[in-house]
Amino acid sequence: MANPRRAATIRTSIAAMQADLGPQTEHYEMPLDKPRLYRWVVGSSATADSIAVLTHNGGTSGRWLLVRDVTLGANLTNADETLTVGGNFFRVLPAATPLTASRTKTLSTTNAAAGDVIHITRLGLGAFTMLIVNGGPGAGTLFTLPVSQAWFAEAYFDGTNWAVYAAGQLP
To answer: Where are the domains of the chain?
Structure first.
């Protein structure tokens, strides 16, 4: 995605951005309560998730879309989970959270944009595998993170499906 051609407008909050009617042309804003850069996309009807996509009140139809930046999201859990880009692009299973059964982390296509990369790090060990699965129409397991080892995996979104990007064992 291209960087803005002019300076972004600084807003006091996401709520202030959402309260406006929406610009009539592409525009960039950054709220102080969540200092991330957003781009106004006229006509977008992407599903709001409060991180990657923000809505507004009336006026020009469109959405505020997050200008992608790899950011740490909430820790992964010892459970099957569906991961979205709205949960952020870098996710970790902490060392203090060992797996007690084999777990599946499904990468959702909701609000994913071509070129997005999700990075998953498994520090929590245990005698069970962690599967990273494509949630797109192509389905299938992208990675199987092995038992009792710290690993990372990265998946790339091609606009339709998540695909293998990189993986490896951590020292």
So the answer is: 9-66, 81-169
